């Protein structure tokens, strides 16, 4: 269920109608309209998309976090495989997180294996 923004959230649009700014400034409706602000409530999904885009742009490191997490998982697996460290050398919290990720990846791999491998197996249906 989408949450409707507070009436105190305003958005501004460009000439093409795209949301280009969002504000939580406390102002009356006449003040907002005089400054070309609109009530954001009718545009919840557009405002959400704008805020997500701004968030990603403002934190470039967040874009690489999931990739780095996978690199670290692979590094830990390589160190364990070569006997440099033991899985049990890791803190309990780290062990739990790694096990959870491994289980999730295994489940996803299993689900993907349920799909046909090539177009001949699915009788030409897509």
Describe, in short, the structure shown.
By secondary structure, the protein is mostly helical. 50% of the residues lie in helices and 9% in strands. The two termini are 32 Å apart.
Structural write-up:
With 126 residues, the protein is mainly α. It folds into two domains: 10-58, no CATH class; 63-113, no CATH class. It has four helices and three strands, in the order ββαβααα. The chain has helices spanning 29-34, 44-58, 62-81, 92-113; strands spanning 10-13, 19-23, 38-39. The chain has a three-stranded antiparallel sheet with strand order 2-1-3. A hairpin with a 5-residue loop joins strand 1 (10-13) and strand 2 (19-23). It is elongated and about 70 Å long. The relative contact order is 0.08.
Question: Could you tell me the strand content as a percent range?
Answer: 5-15%
Q: What is the arithmetic mean of pLDDT?
A: 80
Number of domains: 2
What would you report as the Rg, rounded to the nearest angstrom? 24 Å
Which stretches are low in confidence, meaning pLDDT under 50 for 5 or more residues running? 1-6, 121-126
The ordered string of helix (H) and strand (E) elements is EEHEHHH
Q: Number of DSSP helices?
A: 4
**How many distinct beta strands?**
3
Q: Report the helical percentage.
A: 40-55%
What is the end-to-end distance? 32 Å
What structural category arises from helix and sheet content? mainly alpha
Report the major sheet: 3 strands, antiparallel
Keywords:
126 residues, mainly alpha, 2 domains, three-stranded antiparallel beta sheet, 3 strands, 50% helix, disordered N terminus, disordered C terminus
């Amino acid at each position: 269920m989408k949450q409707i923004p507070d009436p105190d959230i305003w958005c501004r649009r460009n000439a093409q109608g795209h949301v280009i700014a969002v504000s939580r400034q406390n102002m009356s409706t006449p003040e907002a309209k005089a400054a070309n602000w609109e009530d954001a409530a009718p545009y919840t999904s557009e405002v959400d998309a704008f805020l997500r885009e701004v968030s990603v742009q403002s934190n470039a490191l967040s874009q690489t976090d999931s990739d780095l997490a996978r690199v670290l998982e692979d590094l830990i697996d390589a160190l364990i495989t070569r006997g440099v460290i033991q899985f049990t050398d890791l803190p309990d919290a780290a062990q739990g997180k790694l096990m959870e990720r491994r289980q999730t990846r295994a489940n996803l791999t299993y689900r993907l294996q349920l799909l046909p491998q090539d177009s001949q197996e699915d009788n030409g249906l897509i």
